Amino acid sequence: MTTSDLIQVEERPQSQRCYQRACAVTPAGVHSPVRAFKGLGLSPLIVDRGEGDEMIDVDGHRYIDYCCSWGALLHGHAHPAIVQAVTQRVTKGCSFGVSTPVEAELASCLLKYLPADQLRFVSSGTEATMTALRLARGVTGKDVVVKFTGHYHGHADSFLVQAGSGCLSLDSSASSAGVPHELAKLTLCVPFNNVEVLLQTLQRQDIAAVIVEPVAANMGVVPPHEGFLELLRKETLEKGILLIFDEVITGFRIHPGGACQYYGIEPDLICLGKVIGGGFPVAAVAGREKVMRYLAPLGPVYQAGTLSGHPVAMAAGLAAIRLAEESSFYQDLEDKTNFLLEPIYDFIIKKDLPACLHQVGSLFTLFLGQRDIDNLEDVKGCNPEMFKEYFKFMLERGIYCSPSQHEANFVSGAHTQEHLLYTQETILEFLDSRI
Ligand SMILES: Cc1ncc(COP(=O)(O)O)c(C=O)c1O
Question: Does the C-beta of 407 come closer than 6 Å to ligand 1?
């Protein structure tokens, strides 16, 4: 590729016009902070449409997409089966505020794969984790929640304490202003993969729940150490603490049964999102009936949502899960990801580069500037300038990676061998020439 073939990412006139217009009416022009590309020195991507594994911006540039709507698009953009399901359903009316049959259909379809009897649909991952925590507090009668530093569970107040994802790019040491101090005190933070601190913390008698991203994916992908989740399950069971797996990213992404099946662990509550909506706003909290029956109107824990179980979104989710049920879907996805990453992994080792590559199923992060990563402290040792250079290098060559060192990248069923190979060669070129 010659310099003249590169996308001039600093000169996208339509994108810049749209962005300026958006900035006049919206803080930083975006409706979710990470979209602003803060710290990357570039104006954000403004997309016109998606086709398979590509996004096309309003200036007509095509990018192979490894962000996949932050993991929601297991089958890439505008998959015909999902488009058909949505179009058929929407002609019957958008939303009714009462039940439609497709809710139970999607719920049964999901529950087949989960160690849970029931679930309740909500519209965002934030609602799912917020509901799970309220439920845990309602069931145990205790108030404290334990989370892991750098894990992200959405933007409910109780979780904005040493949180990951976009919070890691904020200048302030607190994850957010506006969280009452008294509430934040009820959230205890433990370093991921640190058994000693975990055991010490769990000695307290006032803990309602431990919430964990079983594979951390919001400080970049950081897998659990062998035995860590098992120990967490054993200790929480013994102490009557509810264990919440936040599988908003990992659910139906790394395995049909998410991390529960991948690691063979049965938590008390499972939060789902992203993939289960096929690109639409669907999330859920799932658990055993004895816990789920605490939810209103059966039980005393209140939870509700005008658009929960939205029929068009349910139809999209159902179509997405049915596609994933086709035999060998997950194996093929992992094979594709291995095909993309193995030579990169080998190259890093062979050249002893200051970098490391983490992968679980179709989730991956290339960490730049740090060799070993087990928790947030290690992630902080990465080199933000190197990431900035990498992100621009890839974007200029028509590859859109998740726009932060603290995020996961995703391979979808739509990624072609040709595009995976091109991506692999481009990453290798970057590593060879710039590090
Ligand atoms: C693990 C995890 N939990 C919860 C959330 C919050 O989901 P939402 O953005 O749909 O509110 C996210 C979002 O990225 C997530 O990654």
Answer: no
